[in-house]
Amino acid sequence: MQDAVWIVLALLQGPAPVSPAPLPVVVDSAILPQTAVTGRLPAPPVVQVPVPPRTAAATPTAARRQELVKGKAELSYVSTGGTASTQTLGTGAEAVFAPGLWRLESRASFLRTRTDGTVRARRLTGQVKTARKIGDRAELFARGTYLRNTFAGIDNSVDGAAGVTALLIKGEPQRLSFDSGLGYIGEDRTRGPGRYVATMDLGVRHQWEFTRRNRISNDASVKADVERASDWRLSHVAALQAALNAVLALKLSHEITYRNEPVPGFTKADTVAAAAIVATF
User: Which one of 3.40.640.10, 3.40.50.1000, 1.10.540.10, 2.40.128.100 gives the CATH number of domain 120-280?
Assistant: First the structure.
């Protein structure tokens, strides 16, 4: 009986509604962003950072141009009083012009001593030198020197020489070079006959720049008569330079000049010790 009731109720409800199938959706890819089509995130935008232009001082060309010309000047003065009033004045200047393989150097120095208002002695030195590199370790040179040194009895002296320089140590912080060459000297003396002889020239130069603008230098040279071995002269200059600021420096130097055959009435050795203020530009 119950089964018949359930059958009648099922017939009265009717068939179950059928849901329609979903229609396909067609999307135009032209109107979608690129990420929706490829499935990848867009690449980050490239940001170009502006690079500041290099100044002329920072370029290698400008740096080389600044190295073409170098110069310095120095001044020393000593005054004493008491029984005798003495003033000693010393000045010097140097300029170097180095275009490419060539180098041109010029230097001048002056020293004068006055006692009780009277000039006792003076020394004037001028030199011009040119050199040309031949490879990395050698160069040819030619120089001319003028000297007037009444401290040693030299009225006028003209000296010329040419030869080869060997660069034994090249670089920083030390430099060492050796000179050898031939020359000629014409010397007028305050006493006795002059000297006009061919010479053999040898020289050694060493510089140790242990910090920037602080250096020790030694410059020694020998000049000998090629005909008379007894007529030779030696000079040596040692100097210590300490920087005070970007331009000025304090320089202490000691110079010795030895002549094996001096001017009659003068000693064989002359020495000069000086303290000077040096300006570099």
Answer: 2.40.128.100
